[in-house]
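Page 47, continued from p. 46.
Same chain as before, 256 aa.
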Amino acid sequence: MSRHGFRPTSFCFSLLLAAGIWAAPGYAISKDFNQTVPLQPCGTFELQNVNGPVDVQGWDRNEVEIHAVKTAKNQETDLERVAIEVEARPDSVVVTTRYPQNEGVEVAVEYTIHVPHHVLVEHVGTVNGTLRVFGLDNVEDLHTVNGDIEIFEAGGNVRAHTTNGNVRLELAHAPEKAGAIAETTNGSLVVAVPSDLQADIEAKCMNGNFSSELPITMESTDRLREMRGKLGRGGPPIRLRTVNGGIRLTILRSSV
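Result:
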């Protein structure tokens, strides 16, 4: 658990009361936010948003570049009521989007973030918006409610959770002992892994099908609509779950 106390469920539902529902087509008044802070390569990063997508990319610099666009639907003064707070230390950076309590403010915040490739991304979350992560070695908790989750050329013990959206997970290398999790309720899962990956696979889809490009040694299970098996000799678990959608396991192919 993050030492800063970010846990998606309690945080998201309390802020939904304050933020209102994001309807992007009506937004018209915008303001940029830019800040760059140093971060050690072995440090940690967290970000919590409410209404709006988040894009986090790895790069070779030992600093975090934060670019955000706040967009208001009705009044320009609403932009000032939504704050972006940055807590920066040499070994950790935490970005938090603050909405006024018990007030409806129709403001969306779209983030584009660059962080060092080797930092630990402990948590990135939003309520209404897509999460996209690219080129990071150590990713942990990614959480949205209404939006897709896309993870490219990444690694770590990924835990990707959405309710209404699809999950695309590309594991560039095997997760550590804790394994990886990808879950949605209304959406499909596509997970791409190296062809020589050694892992235990658990897949459950209530209203959908499971398919795999890789050979899996199947194991028996008494649970309806659940599949268990091994890639190669087996290894860290990869758990895949959806209710309304399919699950597809594919071979990770080079982008070159």
